Amino acid sequence: MTNEQFQRIGETARPKVTIVVDGEGITAYEGDTLLTALLTSGRAVRSSEFGDGPRAGFCLMGACQDCWVALEGGGRVRACTTFVSEGLSVLRAGPAR
Predict the structure, then answer these.
(1) Which segments in the chain show pLDDT lower than 70?
(2) How far apart (Å, rounded) are the C-alpha atoms in residues 60 and 20?
(3) Alpha helix ranges (H) inside the chain
(4) pTM of the predicted model as reported, rounded to 2 decimal places
(5) Where exactly are the structural domains of the chain?
(6) What is the pLDDT of residue 70?
(7) In CATH, what is the architecture of 16-91?
(8) What pLDDT was estimated at residue 24?
């Protein structure tokens, strides 16, 4: 049994890339957004600050503030509009990892 919130059912012929999330390497596909990579690997973007569990993003189009993640080298990006690239390293906020 898997924990993924989403399961990939197509587009598996694209080249794979490795990204680092909270110090752990995960595999994603070229062309995936960071949000897609997180959700298909069984990870939440963050925990709700109101105590109602893990968050998976809200608007999914870059208009809200729900999927911000920190870049390992500094700065932050929206997971829903950031495309993965080999070696991308991010840190999620909160304990829902």
Answers:
(1) 1-5, 48-49, 93-97
(2) 21
(3) 34-40
(4) 0.82
(5) 16-91
(6) 92
(7) Roll (3.10)
(8) 94
